Fold:
Amino acid sequence: MDKLYPPIYYSDYLQLSKLLSSQKPKSNEYGKPAHDEMLFIVVHQVYELWFKLILHELDLVLKMFREEVIDEKNIGVAVAKIQRITEIEKILIDQLRVLETMTPLDFLDFRDFLFPASGFQSYQFRLIENKVGLKSENRIQYSNADYFNTLSLEHRKLILESMENLSLFELVEKWLERTPFLNFEDFNFWDVYKTTVEQMLDGERQVILENKTFSEEKMENQLRQNAVTKEHFEALFNEDKYNELKRKGVSRLSMKATLAALFINLYRDEPILHMPFMLLNTILEMDELFTTWRYRHVLMVHRMIGSKLGTGGSSGHAYLMQTVEKHRVFIDLFNLSTYFVSRSTLPELPYKLKKELGFYYSSQL
Ligand code: HEM
Structure:
């Protein structure tokens, strides 16, 4: 060892005296001790510690993606850090079970002491949402109340900062737009691919038409859905139509970024696209797990308070249920699967392009 560092005591290193004296049940203070309030406090504190770590990981990924040119090595690092976030999210979901060992009646023993505090005011949760890319205009509002107005001035400052900087969504969009693999020179990949997808959608239409078990109404619905999918797919190649979808909120990613993401997904087996695919896939996983947490939390809330208003003043269960679908961020990555075709029908890439996408020492090329 180059240098001797002073010995440190475990408890001091972890600042346990501060940490373990930070649980102050209100029910004790008011002379009406409620045993389960300790559980309630500890579980929330553990959540906030995990949120802190998620932000720590997310900030590193954002920093790497803010660079003009992203070092290829950093894509692997980003994947590893986002995978760490997904593992934490799994714990966040599971952890609700510990809280659910408290019954609604036990909760009522101290709930009245908490107004108007609520997880709604978790500024770290809002920072995560903003940094991942949830836009203010896409947030569900309740009673015209914005979460921002419920926060302290110190926390509002942090929130404003998080909104001024580019989010993970925006940075990944820019990165996708810079993908170099979309120049196919004389090979018109998208024409070949378009025909393949159109054939797939026509095939689906035929299956619907031949389904004798469908009522007239169901058949009509299915055919309409098939036509909408076709229209959306065509929009991927028409700037005006695509921008119309963006205006309507059907798509959020730019057309160029969407095509890049589609290409990466379709040709993910090519060595050079493997890491970009992993990145998109882990981001999708992260988004899905946040949605799962929201849904799991709302089920717990329903069980605990039924249809009572939340301590933060929202309609409680009803408000939260709406956020489950509306607060998804990377929905475009999920929608891409609509246009996937099986490997056997994928257009074969020209030799030169395949060579560019492979490692030079590949034995097949
Ligand atoms: C007995 C347990 C819990 C109940 C009854 C409950 C209830 C609620 C309710 C009703 C809301 C809507 C806002 C309001 O009007 O208050 C809410 C929001 C929220 N809660 Fe909980 N909660 C519980 C536990 C937790 C835990 C353990 C966490 C972890 C940090 C948490 C985090 C949040 C967050 C982040 C929001 C904001 C969600 C959003 O606006 O999208 N909650 N909670």
